[in-house]
Amino acid sequence: MPYDPRIHHRRSIRLKEHDYTQPGAYFITLCTQGRQCLFGNVVKGKMQLNYLGHIAFNCWEAIPDHFPHIELDTFVVMPNHLHGVLVIIDTSVGARQCRAPTTERQCRASTTEQFGKPVCGSISTVIRSYKSAVSKSINIIWHTKGQSIWQRNFYEHISRDQKPLDRIRQYILDNPQRWADDPENPQHNPDDCEFLFDIPF
Q: Tell me: the pLDDT tens digits for 4-19?
């Protein structure tokens, strides 16, 4: 069965009893508010990033600079969402180092994530930091303040075996070619669109 995010995604409500600082591959999907296409366009099956898309791309690439226990795997920035695999390689490093400025003072040693109490080095903390960095950069450009460009939650799937991980990687790589049929494509739900910014590109 090919990978289908509508079937295989786990919603942002985290799995109970799972330690999200443990080594493993985590497939992440982030969506923009209202599915607005902020990051560029798909042209002939290839993603063409605009300036905001490059911000989203560069901030994702910088995740290991702030969280040394994280390795980047396959990822793609789409017009209104991002798919990426983050690999936790060493939880002891994550517990000792939490250098992202948006989360450093909030981190604690516990491995049990609770609302409003981020766990240093956990996947939720990494994603929170990433989303904040992208939103802040775009707010500077648009002279806005405190506007999050992301939907509140995110989707994740924990991959424990090589074959499912390979299917996820291929799904990510093929995403631009399948944009016309992508459930996140706002053309499928034009009445649900909420525009944060009037983007001329």
A: 555 444 444 444 455 6
